[in-house]
Amino acid sequence: MPLRALGSEQQLTSFVIRRLLYAIPMLILVSFVSFVIINLPPGDYLTTMRQQLESQAGLTREEAMLIAERMAARYGLDRPFMVQYFEWIKGIVTRGDFGYSFHYNRPVSEVLWQRLGWTLLIATTCHMVSVGIGVLVGIFSATHKYSLLDNVFTVLSFLGLSTPNFFLALLIMYYLAFHVKTHVGGLFSTEYVMAPWSWAKFGDFLKHFWVPVFVVGLAGTAQNMRVMRGKLLDVLNSQYVETARAKGLPERVVIFKHAVRNAIQPIIMYLGMSLPFLIQGEVIASIVLNLPPIGPAFHIALVNQDMYLAGSFLLMIAVVLIVGNLLADLLLAWMDPRVRYE
Amino acid sequence: MAQGELLLDVQNLSTHFNTEEGIVRAVDRVSFQVYKGQTLGIVGESGCGKSVTAKSIMQIVPKPNGRIVEGKILYHREDGVVDIATLHYQSQEMRELRGNEISMIFQEPMTSLNPVYTIGDQIMEAIQLHQKLDKQAAREKTIEMLAKVGIPSPRERIDRYPHEFSGGMRQRVMIAMALSCSPKLLIADEPTTALDVTVEAQIINLMQDLQDEMGMSIIMITHDLGVIAGIADRVLVMYAGWVVEEGSTEEIFYSAKHPYTQALLQSVPRIGRTGRLNSIKGTVPDLINLPQGWCYFAPRCSHVMDICLENEPPMCALVNGRRVKCWLYQEGEASA
Q1: Alpha helices, DSSP H only, in chain A?
Q2: A307 touches A315 (CB < 8 A)
Q3: Do B116 and A261 touch (CB under 8 A)?
Q4: What is d(CA B297, CA B328) in angstroms, rounded to the nearest whole number?
Q5: φ/ψ bin of B17: left (φ > 0), alpha (ψ from -120 to 50), beta (otherwise)
Q6: d(CA A189, CA A186)
Q7: B292-307 mean pLDDT
């Protein structure tokens, strides 16, 4: 009798393995495309540097050319495109070396990891908050359709969906700075930026942290709320929910065990897609709030044609997309047996 | 008449829906009885209130729009009579009846089972809810029920998901679930409408076999007169929320009284009959804000009289427990 149960598990295992294998060619493709895109704009960092050397450092054209060529040789920029790509990938895979950032004058990985940590922290917190609140409010709205609170939440969610987050960031900063009269922007107050971690610093961090989480997470929360409400209303009308009621189950079991598990699927799918979206969505809010995550640095890297840094950022966003989708798919397969077939 | 022991006595039941356009009297002063071990058939066109009657008995009328506004649903338990109409739909007492003493199967086997749980989980859920069995015992009971409804190799199938079963098999699973707590009353709401005719016959036979074995009463709701003829002891004909006629199955089929029942029987296709199939002219009236005080069938009736449009026909009790709601008949008239 556990034979069949095993079959079901095996199905899930085979799905997981299949899905993991599909991710590998995707990652290779994405890394290549990232590299191609970064090399597409005419000129490169060396051109910019040469011009700066000539105009600002007063070197002759030949001297500038010489320095540029030396740099090109050192970083392999004079080699064919495909070779550059393979060297770059080899570095990443074997040594975790993402290349060198010309703008920051440091290895890309240093710039990247320092920022990626903050970005992931903000993005995952936003995710958890927006899913948690969105789903719970969505369930409430669907089970109390057209009640006063449902209408209030509906209005709020439309406001949340339609307010640009940089504008919201400005409003909050204005309010905090002029009405609460507190330090705004960044993740720490000035006196804590360089201080070692302590409870006081942590408290100060929380005081700053909620602003980006709120600003970036608001639209997601509103979206999740609407999706959850709509889908749950749909599911509540389905026959199997009536079957569950007809069994004599208490209403909360009918809602949470039978209806919600079927209604939450679009939220999970959206979760996979929205992880990189959240990172991008952060760009403007981060600039306004003066935060250290990826967004603004990506922006600067693009402006300066800092190719390895920009390419690595692009690659990381794509990787996050693929990994996010992979996680969402696996979660979905665990939740819904029909997904395990292909 | 000798009908045996009374199980369910529905008296003057009305269930209304408040819609944006107005009130729908989906079930309008309906009375009927169900006796132990017998099968009551309820026939009628779509929207005549058959399903809502069934859902009223289960107290699963869609909230918040639908509600029972009057009448009694007297359910005879071993320890006395309970009026279901007065129970709150989420009360402990109602939940102990629902799915346990009274259970229901539905029209759409393809969607009646939750796609994300195995059929075993779903049947065991009902068993563990109502019976004091541990998980292993509930599982054994589930396997036994699956075998009983004719699911091949139930020990393996128990861990399968609904999408791995055909429509007919899913309806068998639903029957297994509904009967897993040995209910006294099984309400089958068009259980074969969505199935092929061959599968339909199998399901009907299965229900009859299980009734012989377990002795439950059945309320069989259908618009298919052929199904009713095969399984029901008594038949209730509904039209626009009313019961328009009641009688034994033979009486209904061989000497239908109400012009609606007669028309319904004439619109059944028969092998050998040529020419155009008779259909009942006109359509069922829109129940939203339907004015009262006339016969709702009058516009489609070939025997229509002036009085039909001026007054609501009374329910005439004929001999042998036959009833007909029509101006053509008088109280106590012989039913031959």
Answers
A1: 2-39, 45-55, 61-75, 81-90, 108-143, 148-162, 165-175, 199-236, 239-246, 251-253, 260-263, 265-289, 294-303, 307-335
A2: no
A3: yes
A4: 13
A5: beta
A6: 7
A7: 90
pLDDT tens across A25-84, in order? 988 898 888 888 888 877 777 777 777 777 777 778 888 888 878 877 777 777 788 888
Q: Answer whether A246 sits within 8 Å of B60, measured CB to CB.
A: yes
Burial pattern B154-171, b for ≥16 Cβ within 10 A else e, equals bbebbbbbbebbebbbbb
Instruction: Determine which helix (DSSP H) or strand (DSSP E) holds B71, and give its type and residue range.
Output: strand B66-77
Distance CA A214, CA A289 (A): 12
Which amino acid type is present at position A115?
Answer: R
CB contact under 8 A, A251 and B116: no
Task: Determine contact, residues A298/A313, Cβ cutoff 8 Å.
Answer: yes
CA-only gyration radius of chain B, Å = 21
> What six digits make up the tokens of B89?
């739909």
pLDDT value of position B35? 95
Select the more confidently predicted residue: B145 or A124. B145
A114-303 topology per CATH: MetI-like fold (1.10.3720)
Question: Of A197, A203, A199, which Cα lies nearest the Cα of A182?
Answer: A203
Closest Cα in chain B to A237? B62
Residue A36's φ and ψ, nearest 5 degrees, are: -60, -45
- C-alpha dihedral over A243, A246, A251, A256, to 10 degrees? -20
Element at B51 (helix H, strand E) = helix B50-58
Strands A106-107 and A100-101: antiparallel
Residue of A nearest to B154 (CA): A1
Please tell me the distance from the alpha carbon of residue B115 to that of residue A332, in angstroms, as a whole number.
13
Distance CA A275, CA A281 (A): 10
Q: Can you give the residue range of the structural domain that contains B124?
A: 116-180
Q: What is the pLDDT of residue B81?
A: 93
Between A and B, how many CB-CB pairs are < 8 A? 86
Q: Is B132 within a domain? A: yes
Domain ranges of chain A: 114-303
**% of chain A at pLDDT higher than 70:** 89
